[in-house]
Design a protein that fits this description.
57% helix; single chain; 4 strands; 14 helices; four-stranded mixed sheet; alpha+beta
């Protein structure tokens, strides 16, 4: 566990936090290799991997709740091409202004930086963690939107996006009974034919932790629907969710793909772990 909290948390959050702060990973990135790199099973392969590992090392060596502004500043300066302004962290970490105001101040102060989004993600994460004593996954896409809204001083949108991050992190960090996991595969096979007939799909499958047998009390179910013909993927996804949510009481990540486009529409890690049922 990288972070000093009184309660246990999903250890996958360590990886997701460092990955999203680093940024720079495209859809073709192999998540399995990236995780092995993060957990020191293999050496880093490219600059994005290396950046993620440097962030991991920083959190391993420093208590985010207590490390000095000087320590934070020196690390950021080692990661970007320009140096932070001397008073930036002092202003941003001022506890007399609310989080939204600090986010606005931060975004305006770094807008000229080439790597402004990395700086924003890193400082935002520390700001939130120190204020709330809770972890938050700084999802890259959501924080890019927050950054843009902060430049416009749109506090309503900042707060909306913040709540979105909180909800997504909460889902990732909410455990369930392992007894549920044991019944997942059996329940899918039991109702598979009824679902295929309802949705008129070619086949179904799973990928990720349940397919690899590495699921735990925090795992969601990665579920794939393979269609023979073109269709409205959003409607198929919604029907899929409605059908299975009472049968399998887990968070589900549903992918709908066309049979002849599986290799294009799935990431390398999804393809590697895909198990057709």
């Amino acid at each position: 566990m990288l972070f000093n909290l009184t309660l246990n948390y999903n250890s996958k959050l360590d990886y997701l936090i460092c990955k999203h702060i680093a940024g720079g990973f495209d859809d073709n990135c192999n998540e399995l290799i990236l995780r092995d790199c993060f957990y020191k099973k293999i050496a880093f392969i490219n600059s994005a991997d290396y950046k993620m590992c440097l962030i991991r090392d920083f959190f391993e060596e420093n208590d985010v709740l207590t490390c000095s502004q000087k320590c934070i500043k020196e690390f950021i300066n080692s990661m970007i091409n320009v140096k932070l302004e001397d008073n930036l962290l002092k202003t941003v970490f001022n506890s007399f202004i609310n989080l939204e105001e600090r986010v606005i101040t931060l975004s305006k102060s770094i807008d000229s930086y080439e790597e402004k989004h990395f700086v924003f993600r890193f400082i935002f994460f520390i700001l939130y963690f120190r204020e709330k004593k809770q972890l938050i996954i700084p999802y890259n896409g959501i924080l890019q939107k927050m950054y843009s809204n902060a430049l416009e001083e749109n506090k309503i949108r900042i707060n909306f996006l913040l709540n979105k991050l909180i909800k997504k992190t909460f889902k990732m960090n909410t455990p369930h009974s392992l007894e549920i996991n044991k019944k997942v595969l059996g329940n899918i096979l039991k109702y598979k034919d009824s679902f295929i007939k309802l949705i008129n799909c070619q086949n179904i499958g799973i990928f990720g932790s349940f397919a690899m047998g590495t699921d735990n009390e925090y795992s969601d179910l990665d579920f794939i629907v393979i269609m023979e013909e073109e269709c409205n993927f959003k409607i198929v996804k919604k029907i899929t969710d409605c059908f299975w949510k009472n049968i399998i009481p887990l968070e589900m990540d549903i992918k709908v793909v066309k049979k002849d486009k599986i290799n294009e529409q799935l990431t390398p890690a999804m393809l590697e772990t895909l198990k057709i049922l």
